[in-house]
Amino acid sequence: MRYGDLVAVDDVSFSxxxxxxxxxxxxxxxxxxxxxxxxxxxxxPTAGGITVLDTxxxxxxxxxxxxxxxxxxxxxxxxxxTLNEILxxxxxxxxxxxxxxxxxxxxxxxxxxxxxxxxxxxxxxxxFTIAATLVNDPEIVFLDEPxxxxxxxxxxNLWEFVREINQRGKTIVLTTHYMEEAEYLCDRVAIMDQGxxxxxxxxxxxxRELPVPYEITAATDSGYDRDRLVSLASVMELAxxxxxxxxxxxxxxxxxxxxxxxxxxxxxxxxxHLEVTPGNLESVFLSLTGRAxxx
Length: 295
Description:
Blueprint: E1 2-3, E2 6-7, E3 21-25, H1 32-40, E4 51-52, E5 55-56, H2 61-65, E6 68-71, H3 83-93, H4 100-106, H5 122-133, E7 140-144, H6 152-167, E8 171-176, H7 179-185, E9 188-193, E10 196-201, H8 203-208, E11 214-220, H9 226-230, E12 235-239, E13 245-250, H10 253-266, E14 271-278, H11 281-289
Parallel strand pairs: 3-8, 3-9, 6-7, 7-8
Antiparallel strand pairs: 1-2, 4-5, 9-10, 11-13, 11-14, 12-13
């Protein structure tokens, strides 16, 4: 996808499996939203083709739009209509007779049915927007940065609603720049940077492929044999070596941790601190691109 000389989306290709939660993860400006808008039929790509549910998006866009639900980053609603009235109106656009009460119950807003959108909190507005995406009973739900600008509690609450919607049989495609969100929600993740997909797999597999998937940090009340630590099972290197502590880079913490405890016991060394830190998707992104995920 080009905007003049700017290549916003560059040779991106992927497929989404029925029933999964598929995430597009990357920093702001990576091309996530542009990719989603091309799939949704909002933008026409300057090259390539897109198929949704066996239908070419730009060959028959109306057929596609009848089968998908879309939550945009910014949504606007009628100021003086209640939540019930807005959902009833949207249902009529699709020729549907969906129950607004059922939709609001699904997203935990049944008690707000006669309230206007402006009186909702940020988290409630996002939940209502998700309810609006479900009006046409779509097979695929697209969520663009669904938890952006929400506080941690509202974000967690929304994650549970997304999971519930998925468990009801909906395929979900979402974009996010929150790595913990992608790890929690997504069956598979495509990591984007500068308009390209740099990796794609399940979060677990992506983390396992890290050069250093685990860090084990420890401190002692006495000295230790550096060479002996390096020789422990699955240790790749000894880092941050100091008089009172050290960090082991391990390929398998389940191997290294028992070996470390056995070494400490046999050497009569007391560990005053012990911490195991697994890799995460931010570590994956840093490993792939050399810069932090939230840059």
